Amino acid sequence: MSCASRESGRARVQRVLIKPLVELGMVRPNRMTVAQFVDFGARLQDKLAYMSEENLCGLRAALIRLASGKTRDQWPKEVTILSYAHGIQQPPSRDNDYAVSIMRSAMGRRAFAEGYHVELLNTARRFGPPPSKYVLSRLQDEARENQGKERVILDRVRSDVARADERKWLGGYQSLRAECLTILGEAAKGAGA
Fold first, then answer.
1. Residue 97 backbone phi and psi in degrees, to 5
2. Which residues have a Cβ under 8 Å from the Cβ of 108 and sit 6 or more positions away?
3. CA dihedral (146, 152, 156, 161) positive or negative
4. Would the pLDDT of 189 be above 90?
């Protein structure tokens, strides 16, 4: 990929989501001043920059249906847009304030020490309330199953007999583990400062 063809996430949000909706006739909500609307657009670019082009297209279609106002041509509320966006594509874990706070808490440190931090992060990314003791015990069970599955798939990869779906699962699991370690490492650096 050449430098000229690279596009920032903010530019992608502008090109794929905001500009097409404005061109279709979506207008500033009556409740917003022009300055507030400019800030609204900038916040959307910042908060949705993680989304893929395909998922931004899906969000664009959803926002057309969600348009507000008498003539159904005004932008929906920011919280509505973000809620739909998160339903289409979750933000990266380190951009999810709730997930980061759970992982950096005593609960996250305990999960790391006991080996179920990947499962806790995956649960926290869903924006639910702090997990109950029952949910934590289920996450521990799930972690044992996932770690066993990981060992089996790693053996299959070494033997060059792993299926594509197994390799995909392994990549996702290991990527989530790396995110956990990044979050926990940043917490440790902050505690030492």
1. -55, -40
2. 102, 117, 120, 121, 183, 184, 187
3. negative
4. no
In single-letter form, the type of residue at position 163 comes to R
Does residue 4 surpass a pLDDT of 60? no
Q: Are 152 and 165 in contact (CB under 8 A)?
A: no
Q: Residue 130, Cα to own-chain centre: how many angstroms?
A: 18
170, 82, 67, 9 alpha-carbon torsion, rounded to 10°: -70
pTM over 0.85: no
Q: Please tell me which of 89-93, 118-122, 153-157, 176-180 the model is most confident about, judged by mean pLDDT.
A: 153-157
Buried b (16+ CB within 10 A) or exposed e, 153-187: beeeeeeeebeeebeebbeebeebeebbeebbeeb
d(CA 150, CA 142): 12
Q: For the purposes of burial, counting CB atoms within 10 Å of the CB of 148, is it exposed (0-12), middle (13-18) or buried (19 or more)?
A: exposed
